[in-house]
Amino acid sequence: SFPLIGSFNEWAWPSGPILSTGRFITIEFDANNNMAGTRPGFTATLASTTPLPALINMSNTPQTNVCNAVFYDNGGASTNYTDNQYTVQTLCADSGQMLRVRFNHVTTQLAAGDTLRVFDGTDTTTNPIAVHVAGSVLDVMYASARCLTFIFSSNNSTNGRGWQGFLTCDT
Questions:
Q1: Strands 86-92 and 115-120: what pairing?
Q2: Beta bridge partners of 152
Q3: Max alpha carbon distance in the chain (Å)?
Q4: With CB atoms 3.0 to 4.6 Å apart as the test, which of 36, 40, 103, 155 could cross-link to 138 if both were Cys?
């Protein structure tokens, strides 16, 4: 679970900068307040004291080395994944490190009939270390060596928001 830093509206603004308690921050905007009428929204200036993570959308690409990234389905951060997919992607840590992925439970949603399989290493002929379907909670997963391989398959009837996973490397 993620700690709530604050909840703000037009009558309650933050008194100063909002700082993340960790490496990531998620901002959720709820426009369903029917008492507010039409308002201009909000602006935010984001700054980071560390390099921003790379953004990786699931695709059939060769092995990718990464130690600081946000990993999405093929729809990316803003759209649902597409129907009729069969996509395989291997992500690896730098030499001497192990890859870790931690999924954001708030933004992760698979539709019925769609499956995300995760394999420890580059070999997809072994049993997966995780199989996720609609309603699954995606746990933190660690590679026992350097790499995790993901296989995502979607059917032709419905799709969902997909996933957002934070990739980091551990020694």
A1: unpaired
A2: 87, 116
A3: 56
A4: 103
Report CA-CA distances (Å) from 159 to 13, 78, 117. Answer: 36, 14, 16
**The tokens of 87 are what?**
């996509």
Q: What is the mean pLDDT of the chain?
A: 87
Phi, psi of 123 (to 5 degrees): -95, 120
Burial 75-97, CB ≥16 within 10 A → b, else e: bbeeebbeeebebbbbbbbeeeb
> What is the full DSSP assignment across 56-110?
EE--S-S-EE-SEEEEE-TTTTTSPPPSS-EEEEEEEPPTT-EEEEEE-TTT-B-
User: Cβ atoms within 10 A of the Cβ of 124, count?
Assistant: 13
Identify residue 64 by its one-letter amino acid code. T
Quick one: which of 69, 126, 77 has its CA closest to 100?
69
Quickly state the pLDDT bin for 1 (edges 50, 70, 90).
Answer: low
CB 80 within 8 A of CB 153: no
Pick from 164, 8, 166, 138: nearest CA to 74: 164
pTM of the model: 0.73
Q: How many CA atoms lie within 13 A of 119 on its CB side?
A: 14
Question: What pLDDT is stored for residue 15 in this prediction?
Answer: 83
